[in-house]
Structure prediction request, 386 residues.
Amino acid sequence: MPIAEQEGSLQPTQAASDRSWHGIVLQTLKRNEVSLIPYVPDRVLTPLIKNLHADPFFTTFATAREEEAVGIVSGAWMGGRRGAVLMQTSGFATLANVLASLAVPYQIPLIMFVSERGTLGEFNYGQSLVCRTMRPVLDSLALEHHTITRLDELEFIADRSIKQAVTTQAPVALILSPLLTGGKVFDK
Amino acid sequence: MSTRNTKIMNRFDVTSRLIARLQHEEAVIGGIGNTNFDLWAAGHRPQNFYMLGSMGLAFPIALGVALAQPDRRVFALEGDGSLLMQLGALSTIAALKPKNLTMIVMDNGIYQITGAQPTPAANVADIVAIAIGSGLTNSAWAADEEDFERLVDDAMAASEPNLIAVRIDDKPGVGTTRRDPVQIRERFMHGLGVREPL
Prediction:
């Protein structure tokens, strides 16, 4: 079992998960007043989603599609409330249209956390192919993105990236590598 | 729920009637194409937002505004073809139950702006039945213009999200929105009191 799942998922208390990857993400969102969290679920994101639901600071809910979640946080930003979208690699692959026609041209600081499937032990051929489309799409729109692999760099990258997105009014994608989260493996 | 007794109305006329009834700086989100062209033509307001792409996201964007500003009423104008792209959004809204969100669907059964091709739902699906089945129990067809105005007045005092469907003709939008996304977004944020102009 990946380290990430041994922590968090059994112990949704905040103190226990503070130094886990998901505890750091939750605290960084809170510190930056990012409170609206629509998501399309992913196995790896489960402890983060569970703890976000348990924390009344956040409004956390599932959407039917990732682009729907992007629309929601875009509207919320214009109304004065910060949000972030949680998704999996395959969900990001559905977003090219909304990134190019809403988030980028309207200069909306869309904050995306993407759980990375398709690499470092992927067992589903489709997932590995979808993963290869993600960075070319981000690069084609010159969108800021970081792949986070180390726990000791997570807080710095996430905190600075959220602040940069807001101040420069530009989207950012934070890709959570299996090196950070443990990923999803075949026996699951 | 039946559409048989509903009058075929006109998008610009219905949109103008909505705008005329707004007195509390309500937000209005116009979907892609004709819905925002007619919103623009009805007279620009600082609380209007015009989509230039992202077909199907008028209701999700309006939901975000409604969640950010629960004391402001938010209207969203969407076409039937656009709504078909994002039917899941109806369930999301039903689950969250924002008290201040009213969805208006302009249903002509065609993709008017691309050459009036019929939508896959034309003559087989009922938008209001879909909305009710998605959990939006406060959904209704407007029988005619006066009924539309009555439903809008009801919506102003509603304590749950509501949807008004309007059967409209095949006319194109009356105006053309100025396609300046940064200015549209910035002026909308001024209109919502989120920012002050430089």
In short: Helices of chain B lie at 11-20, 34-41, 58-68, 80-84, 88-96, 127-133, 145-156, 181-191. The interface with chain A takes residues 27, 29, 49, 51-57, 59-69, 72, 86-89, 91-92, 95-96, 181-182, 184-185, 188-189, 192-194 of chain B (CB under 8 Å). The first helix of chain B runs from residue 11 to 20. The mean pLDDT of chain B is 96.
